[in-house]
Fold each of these.
Amino acid sequence: MTKTISARLLALAGTSLALLGSPLSASIPPPPGAAELAQRGDDIAWSITEDLTTEIGPRMAGTEAEAAARRWAVARLQAMGFANVREEQFDMPVWVRGEEQAWLTSPFLPQKVAITALGTSASTGPRGIEGDIAYFESFDALVAAPEHLVKGKIVFIDHQMASAQDGSGYGTYGRGRFIGANAAAKKGAIATVIRAIGTDDHRNPHAGGTNFEAGVKPIPAGAISNPDADQLVRQWKRAQQMRKSENAMGYVPEPLRMKLVLTPQNLGTKHSGNVIAEVPGSDPAASPVIVACHLDSWDLGTGAIDDAAGCGIVTAAAKHVMSAGQPRRTVRILWAGAEEVGVFGGKAYFEKHGTEKHAVALESDFGADRVWRIDFKLPDSAKGLADRLAAAVVPFGVVRGKQAANGGADIGALVQAGVPAIDLAQDGTRYFDLHHTPDDTLDKIDPAQLRQNVVVWSAVLAILANSADSELP
Amino acid sequence: MTKTISARLLALAGTSLALLGSPLSASIPPPPGAAELAQRGDDIAWSITEDLTTEIGPRMAGTEAEAAARRWAVARLQAMGFANVREEQFDMPVWVRGEEQAWLTSPFLPQKVAITALGTSASTGPRGIEGDIAYFESFDALVAAPEHLVKGKIVFIDHQMASAQDGSGYGTYGRGRFIGANAAAKKGAIATVIRAIGTDDHRNPHAGGTNFEAGVKPIPAGAISNPDADQLVRQWKRAQQMRKSENAMGYVPEPLRMKLVLTPQNLGTKHSGNVIAEVPGSDPAASPVIVACHLDSWDLGTGAIDDAAGCGIVTAAAKHVMSAGQPRRTVRILWAGAEEVGVFGGKAYFEKHGTEKHAVALESDFGADRVWRIDFKLPDSAKGLADRLAAAVVPFGVVRGKQAANGGADIGALVQAGVPAIDLAQDGTRYFDLHHTPDDTLDKIDPAQLRQNVVVWSAVLAILANSADSELP
């Protein structure tokens, strides 16, 4: 675990909310009591993250654990003094993991490989399947390949993700996971194995969903860890070399082969739900500010950075705004359900509330490392507001981005429909070391950086919740 | 992975063997060709490590994989031009891993825990066992506890290992693994779970042996990863707190409970073996220098740092000495079998060769990070030799230690019997991040530090192999 936040940022975090009264936010009065709150420090985000990950742990969408997390969430948000705390249920298809084992079986003695099934993967059956590996260096190479190289084989997609502060590699490298199995299935592959979409070197594969088009029959699909992918590639190269040299001697030895036992199951339609809580605004006519995170997690870790910490951050910020004095606008907290497996919670929220007016939407769902950039997607009327916000977060080391905010998965439908958005972009340099792995656990969170998140979110939310009707819809 | 070797050390490594001709080793002529060898660089240690871990992978003592590793080793050592390459077989009791799963089952919803069985652990049977946790902060606390706190329970030994450059914490922290289950079994525990003896924060538990005294019936014994142990402790504290508050209300809720499914098996007596190779000395009357490593590995990783790299290092050094011109003394390379599970190879070597004269013994079995200290356990006659050796390794950043060398596991019986020993102590700061885990894989090795090892070993071995009869027995 790297703890890189500077002492200077930490010192600044200690005076956080007091800065809301600085000339930078001159047109908005500082929320009463803010200076004292900041002095008291903040363990709200940490305690939400610790308690949720300890008492509930993994909370896969549509399972009893996610339902228990919702009950826990409702009780916690009520105890914190929020208003209108409620669960809004919806239905969704549930897929759960089964046994997961894999071996490289030829041309050497069998060696075990660390694998995890991708969401919506088909089952190999308990006896497993074995096949030749068809190697592709990337998703693009698979797409370009003729069918006969794929048919009847286990497709392996290499393509090692590089880390980036803004997480921008996820789209490019992630295609192998998002749609690789679909492309392989269409060419007749019997299974797909990808190098996990992750930047670490530990033998914990990264889970995540994969998507099959309507009409394409799902095949077994798994991800293996980077060290296992390295081993596969070393063996593949040696198998190629042996084939070359032994072909010359008149026979063709075994290629690289793999055996997979993956027995996930589709459980059909089950309940999931969003948990919602509010800080009621003083002006009932003013549209609410919505701050989101997601309550569900993948099942290998305890979902600490993804996304208990996000719920901790947005809720701590809302609590600070509430404690500092009633804001003009309502702050609505959305702990979305079933994000990981298809953003069912975000869609359900939009179906139910999409026609209501929302002033602006923000989401925290990129770990617990420090916020380093603020991005806006606001109406022209909010130009002054954006300047105030950008100025307010400068003291915490946050720079102003030049790109449009994109919002986040659970508020994606709202933003798509025109609701303004702000991104408080977190440092994602090590996010994909942990993302969807068994290693997504509480110990990976740096309390100092988590605190910086809360301070930045509190500053931003206090300004937004008191913004004028002339600034936001 | 941390790559900390300095550019300066690297540059020095490039001129390694040339230094053997410096005035520091004035009484010994520089081996012919040494300077040229050093210029060519060295990928011998790397290629041994890569090939063994790729083509054989995990090689648990007494298994078919270890036998395959011996065949591989004999072929490799012969191909490298060593003399008297041979396998010396011995028998040993074989224990193999089965299914391994564990859950924290109460007072919260069941949560899965990453566990591995300790060598010689009994089986829980396929249906597993469940019991209350008896918490002990250390091995000493377990020893001090009255029997009624242990009887019928699953003992948990906390005690988080701290990392140390010289690995000196292994003895202290390791007791929970070495003899914790034995102590628990004697007090009537139904199983033992320890916080793994490791310094990392990944959910890969550290394997290793545990020992039951004669007459003590083995119980199931496992190790859980540090993040899992953290989670267990958090839940245990909450369970304690709930008991306190709910006791006051008149009833006693569930304590922390755990379920274990560990199904290892004892396979009885099987063959293992040592692989031996030699650089024949020019003086048949001179006693040999023995350099050792171990060929077997634990089964979770591919045994790259433990101990393929050690075999790579000592063998590369011996090859350099051989290539530089015939030394006066024979250099005997011992790739010991079955070290991890009880040093059976070292004992077998001693039984067969313990009465022969040995000039001095060295072993490489502490990873692949740089050598930082040289320690001696030599006769008085070797005072000048020790000075020459210490001076020869100074340019590579190696300091002279003030403590007696202890030799290493596989040469332990020799050293115990009076054979002189030298330790080339490696930096162990991150050794216990990886030790006995699935993460002990090739990618964890820093080629630059591995090369520094070879250079230091080559310098030392060239001097030792040409030392005088008046210096060493």
Note: Residues 226-247 of chain A form the longest helix (22 residues).
Amino acid sequence: MTATAVQAPLDLPGLRRQIDGCLDHYLTVKAYAVHTENLPPLPLEVLRAFVFAGGKRIRPLMCVLGWHAARGQEEAGPVIRAAASLELFHAFALIHDDIMDHSDTRRGHPTVHRTLAERRQRRVHPEEFGEHAAILLGDMALACSQEMLNGAGLSPARLTVALPTLDAMRTAVLYGQYMDLDTTEQLTGDVARALAVIRYKTAKYTIEHPLHLGAALAGGGPAVRAALSAYALPLGEAFQLRDDLLGVFGDPQVTGKPVLDDLREGKRTVLLALALRRADPGQVRTLCRLIGDPALDEEQADQVRAVLAATGARAQVESLIDDQQRAALRALEGAPFPATAVRALHEVARALTERAR
Amino acid sequence: MTATAVQAPLDLPGLRRQIDGCLDHYLTVKAYAVHTENLPPLPLEVLRAFVFAGGKRIRPLMCVLGWHAARGQEEAGPVIRAAASLELFHAFALIHDDIMDHSDTRRGHPTVHRTLAERRQRRVHPEEFGEHAAILLGDMALACSQEMLNGAGLSPARLTVALPTLDAMRTAVLYGQYMDLDTTEQLTGDVARALAVIRYKTAKYTIEHPLHLGAALAGGGPAVRAALSAYALPLGEAFQLRDDLLGVFGDPQVTGKPVLDDLREGKRTVLLALALRRADPGQVRTLCRLIGDPALDEEQADQVRAVLAATGARAQVESLIDDQQRAALRALEGAPFPATAVRALHEVARALTERAR
């Protein structure tokens, strides 16, 4: 991964393997340190299992691609380690999110709070123990993310330049989550608000900030950042809109997530807001009666799906995804990135918006 | 606070005011940024109210004293800002802790999850909303702590030197909390385990790591660190033992915390472990029946207090506090610190172990 190697196409699966290798190494060393201090092994065991149960490593990949886009020249090792630390941050966000959403399954396995509850079945209140221990386990994942970044081998100057981006990333995702939580009770056709939540929770957090982080590590300036944002924000929106469609219409065998979860939880998606805005009174009643019902069954879900289709909301979301994907790809055309980075960013944009899981 | 001013006695109340000034400034600037981005103001309002409802600022003070102990020479401003960021980290730890402990009151006010539940009374499940929003608010406090540290004005080299201490601090407190949570169901006379929890949750987190952080910011070497540890670990133990006594025998008007909380929650203290080890069968039955009963009343609490006194556990904890306080003060005698730092550390050690709140 020297300056000359950058000319060859970027090997994305290979990069993903390198990222996983870094995570494996960090978690192994940490587990050993914890063992040496006689601290309980369970939290890190559960964290490791969670991290390696799946995940697309989108944020680490974006970080490394941002570094390439900004023509990163130095040794890539510390950058890949720093990028991989974002996956532990993401584990933190997901673990806390799953508590708030009462999700039982993630990546085809029990969620962390369910796992911890099961590992402590003799307790009087196993579920409460599971949730409380999962709060701490999420906190630990965040602390590990920090520690992994700090130990990535970046020079002090390089690390310091990256910090404001990380601060912005944390603010974005936490406020996005908060806005999401704060609206969960209101069933409205407020598309603008649903889009604002997406912007913070996903477009900035998942795509823009990781790209900016990588660019900062390469010493990229404002022009590179702006070009990355022009790609990142529409792509992030399209990515989340695809996620919302998969959450209702996806194949749970492929997504690893029960397809009724989003509907039972009453997730306030753009898809739902669009449907409410176009629904007739009977359709509104159907949505209000069924969305957020924790006992929703497959047949009722089909009624919801029928309304989402009949109102044209589903088709409109598909068309929004197309528009935003195109906007992201167009942004790459005039971007001041090397050709290899453009090609890789193009590939990733298609994968994230045309995926089935 | 230049090198010459270090000769004058350290003004601890003045230092506390400076720390509060830094917190006020950071939170004001952050609230403005959040407002500018059209993000909801409630989380930061609640965080600010929580931070300024009380608190002794022990960790920031310890950090500044560690800096003095290691003969910090440069401008103190960035050090005080970095120190103050520990208070936001502590807010994070307390907010999550109060969720896990089901505490309704802290510092004489409703806890954050209670406050958030009350601010959203129209909701179907206000209590659940309160707990979930408080998970996020704790996360935000942690992110703010990080952002405040990053923006403290430390040079990259100085900041980088401090990072391993912060990593160790986060590991210590989170594992301490986890061990605490993991034992809450077992009522045992395992004094060693209760002491291990104290060591991580309090002695390291509250005293040792903040002192080490300050020393690192002053460029202090291994001898200073070792001398600080020799003071910190016994003092931290004595501090927590005092806290445990106040949690059962304290005056709630003074502590700001309902005196029955620790008993209702069934907190596994050294005090309790000592009592169980010395109790006769009747006393064991009393403790097992009452400790952890969420409906425990004042009369029943008096029965517990009587057992804690009659077994000699209360007196033994007082004597442990004395021993550990003496050990901490003795450690100052040969320590390679300037006289002003020794005097201030002496004063703080007495205040933390002889306090009524």
Note: The longest strand of chain B covers residues 105-106.
Amino acid sequence: MKPAFLKGLKLGNGVLKDALDRDLVRVEALIRDSLRSDQPFIAGLTETVLAPHGKRLRPALVLLAAEQPGASSQAALLAAAVVEMIHTATLLHDDVVDAGLQRRGRPTLNAASGDGAAILMGDFVYSRAITLLVEAELTQVLGLLATTVHRMSVGELMQLDLRNQGLLEQEVYRRVIYEKTARLIEACCATGSILAGAPAASVAAYADFGRNVGMAFQIVDDVLDFEADPHTLGKPVGSDLAEGKQTLPLLLAHAAAGPGERARLEALLAAGAESRQEVVDLVRRLGGPRAALADARRYGEAARAALGRLPAGDIRRALDATVDYVVEREH
Amino acid sequence: MKPAFLKGLKLGNGVLKDALDRDLVRVEALIRDSLRSDQPFIAGLTETVLAPHGKRLRPALVLLAAEQPGASSQAALLAAAVVEMIHTATLLHDDVVDAGLQRRGRPTLNAASGDGAAILMGDFVYSRAITLLVEAELTQVLGLLATTVHRMSVGELMQLDLRNQGLLEQEVYRRVIYEKTARLIEACCATGSILAGAPAASVAAYADFGRNVGMAFQIVDDVLDFEADPHTLGKPVGSDLAEGKQTLPLLLAHAAAGPGERARLEALLAAGAESRQEVVDLVRRLGGPRAALADARRYGEAARAALGRLPAGDIRRALDATVDYVVEREH
């Protein structure tokens, strides 16, 4: 089965797509090998964690930025495995924090095996990712990714703090999504480029690209929480509101509303769980998701502008198609 | 306030104790500096996490094994801060996993601020510890400690798996406490010694010492859960049983019991929460805690034997006194 990212990528170039796919299969094998355990309990949990294939966007970006898809260096494959492991560990903890019951159309590990198993498996996967980088002596990448993980925890803590508070400033929302989501995608692109031995200007262009893709990615995620088909999305719509998270569609709907609708929106938010569907409906009616999608597209354009600083070719075309995928995806 | 470890250490040599104390104050400052945040929410949680001083056994062992207490190198102070941060992060997650409400006489962070805050603060503290080692380029120590953290998560997962199962084999119990507790104390002693540039034979002796101290430490912890004064212990007695954990006092009581008492113990265990006090009483009556303490003392003697491979002097005397402290402590 091709990862969701490759299925969704509109590349004229089938050769590159197949090459990337071959590498991602090797990345998958690296992840499984690294998480192997002589303890049947741990092996079973690992299977549950790895079974629902994610989009594999992050490892694909490492491999693209390393610029040798199909013939990636061992270091690039390993770094690709590590970023996916970091992402997986983060999801395991986030789902406990948010009491999330479904992800990728399946029960979350906390729902299936309890909070304790999900917390400890997050620690197990994350700490293994770090040891992989140490063993491979990828010091610069280790420095970047360790800092990234630390800042992601800051983003998650900020988000926790902001739950059920008064309406957020947009700038606060943007800082939170940068820390919790965009930083890792930025780091993926920088990592690939560093491992390819690219000059500093290219590493910076890749990082800029990744940061903007990351911002677009999270905003689209937040839009989908208002708009998606729950079946395609793999989890219920309105989950963010249920978890007390204010996202850009809500903030832009509020900004666009006239005084009456604004007061109504605030009252519905204050009323809590029982008026959630009404909030979703009102945010949609006020054009919040559409405006947020336009915002995501602006990040997409900024990402394309960063690409303009890189040499033209197949890789740049693939990264351009990645932007389309990120802003047009339906789950 | 002197850390609990120093207060409990019976050293003839007040000079060494004061020197170690000065270093531990610097370690404490390093931890606080490293966890500083511009986010008031995070700063507040950090304060709650750091306020109840722990024993500081782990950083003290790093500093003793580095053999320059009072004049420790920056690397040794940093490594001492890191091991305490790792320990702290582990406790934060363990308390969520165990739904522990009290530690060191105070509410746990999960009790005070919720599971989400405790999980994310664990991630925040642990990931910062890793970045400290990366920034300081302490590569060998990073490799050792990253592996240690990974194996600790394996130990915690094994413990979770074994909850509420049939009676454990003693060897399984020993493997779990090695992974979850003794490995870090072993790594502390090896770390100090590595940073002092000690020859391989000394690093191995320090590691052996630490492993045995760690085993003794955990067994005494498990004894205290049956025997301690809850006020001195800072948490309720019988917590392990409440969390479905089978520890050495129980296993040795079971092994020592005649057929009738053995059947009664098994029936009480199967009956669950309501018969917990009766289990505690029966385990005590069967001499489980006393036998486990004798077992801990044997690890203490093995630790002293490892010390015999190190040069005589103040440091060795302090490590010897540490063994006394570990097996005689009341909390």
Note: The mean pLDDT of chain B is 93.
Amino acid sequence: MQNFVFHNPTKILFGRDTVAKIGPETAALGQKALLVYGRDSLKKSGIYKQICDSLSTAGVSVVEHSGVQSNPMLEHVRAGISKAREHDIDIIVAAGGGSVIDSAKAIAAGSVVAHDVWKFFNGKKSIKAALPIVTVLTLAAAGSEMNSGMVITNEKTRQKFGFGHRLLHPVTSILDPEVTFTVPPDYTAYGAIDAVAHVLEFYMTSRDTDTPVQCRLMEGLIQNSMEACERCLLDPQDYGGRANLMWTATLALNGLTGAGLGRVGFPMHMIEHSLSALYNVPHGAGLSVIIPGWLTWFCQQEEARVAQLGENIFPVEGYQRLTTSAMAERTITIFRNWFSKIESPVSLGELEIPPSDIPGIAQNALTLARFWRLNEYSQQTIEEILHLCK
Amino acid sequence: MQNFVFHNPTKILFGRDTVAKIGPETAALGQKALLVYGRDSLKKSGIYKQICDSLSTAGVSVVEHSGVQSNPMLEHVRAGISKAREHDIDIIVAAGGGSVIDSAKAIAAGSVVAHDVWKFFNGKKSIKAALPIVTVLTLAAAGSEMNSGMVITNEKTRQKFGFGHRLLHPVTSILDPEVTFTVPPDYTAYGAIDAVAHVLEFYMTSRDTDTPVQCRLMEGLIQNSMEACERCLLDPQDYGGRANLMWTATLALNGLTGAGLGRVGFPMHMIEHSLSALYNVPHGAGLSVIIPGWLTWFCQQEEARVAQLGENIFPVEGYQRLTTSAMAERTITIFRNWFSKIESPVSLGELEIPPSDIPGIAQNALTLARFWRLNEYSQQTIEEILHLCK
């Protein structure tokens, strides 16, 4: 096991009827809140009213900043920062999924400095302070509600960049599974795929193999994501399914899985971010295209790791013994088939991205590969992987 | 899944050469430290010197409070509180295992109030403040380094009582697996048993069965404890074994396993605490006596739970199908045999406690049962369980 620091101070309030706690949680930290959210769905579901009522009762004044898109955009973040400065905001309330929470984090960090927020993303400045953030989660997926990371797309440079900083941990996150009853099937599936992908990135790219604590945790989280997702698709109001998916997605990227693994990479996300940045593909849909292709490419180097995962989470019935190679292939097939089963795309073709676009996608991904120091990924390597995703 | 609050702000510094970080971590919080530790082993291993050097370099002055015993005693805690008041201590540094850290917690809470510290334990007062605590862990076992709990024995009333409060979370805990290289085989085993017991308590007493996230986490932690313990017994300087045991024991009682289970009980600990309080039995040794007997008794009510655990962590080879009853019995046998294998006692007889003592032990345990609101445990029930531990 490698040395690590684990420090996750975010408080989680989980369960039924917890949304109304947002007021007191916010009021303990600030009085003038910027309420960051997406679109009308929050209003339709009644969550918006619950949040506003709770904030108002707790004496918190609210300035709204709505319209966050999935794959959140830099310009919209900049507008939020202007608003936060103009209204002397002292706390950010995020109500949404990963995109909303990531936008809230960027606003929280960007509104306390004089320079442009993108300088944090391209590495020219580092975060020294941030406004406190509290969240009401509405989508089980990104894990941003209990971690220090954020991802924003610069629409001008077509870069979807992300990084983490300890000051970006939300102080409190409210996770009410009932809030996700209205998440449509496609985004329920994309969320589960995102959680699976987060775990896979750590599992596959760890250089340390003497990490049974982490491996067992990760294997369980993948199984949970898949099982819980299927329950939610079968019955969107299955509380247990929603609750298990929600908590699994949070644990999948809250620092626990990676603690002790040493330096890991996020190569599947690295390539997917280009699909999102260039074609505005939903993140989970992009991931289900990249994962099987990347795993196939990865098997050229670490077939045994892929086989080990399959052996532990997709056990072969009875006495049948497969070769490592066959087990690895079977594992990839199971993931691909499962993505198809939950109606997420598994090829660039399904996204209507022609093979002729591959060099351009690889070029875009290469910038992020360099920023994330994934130096083993060249233009040629990324193209090779993308050809396995056709 | 039941509603829950999860909030664990303790920062963990894990790995090789981390002990020397105690100085800066302490200096960030206080200037006058009470250094709480046990006996000579800390000095023999050189850890004591490392800690003192680091604290001194960081400009922290130190008052010593050594001599904490396993099953830490109230009088010794009271003496620590007097010292803390006398020297105007502003931070507690604990260097040891669960007993030392629990003593440190009791001193941290007791030294900021005028009343006697035992009033927290018998429920007459509640904690409203505490000095900050930082720890250097020297034994993988109790989990106190990353949780809010503490257990202290009142030697006069012969009560070993414990409870938790959020202000008792250590601010920082340093976990260097190499520090545990010198832990002798018996205490290595007792520590692993304590971790297994912590997980078993949650797993068995949860009233909610729709908790696959938690169940898989717990199953993995039991497997890890057992595997890692065997590695450490085989080679006390196996870094991977020590590291995996240490992190497993921490995760086994840091709040994660119980999040979502609803109200759980600690019945095996409840009964074991009486063995420790009355006979000063090492906690892990007492647990290995109680666990098989309690599980056997528990099978009268929830055989399926015991069988499920065994199915998942001790899979039966091939196609063999066991009845629920046989699988539950097999699970208990595997635990009992494993305790014996690692040379921990599995009967009251091995502890030289005669059956005639059972009523007295049960009477002692009953006080804690009432304090912990384990109302389903009568004198008769506890006696019945203890007879299964003969």
Note: The CA atoms of residues 70 and 186 of chain B lie 13 Å apart.
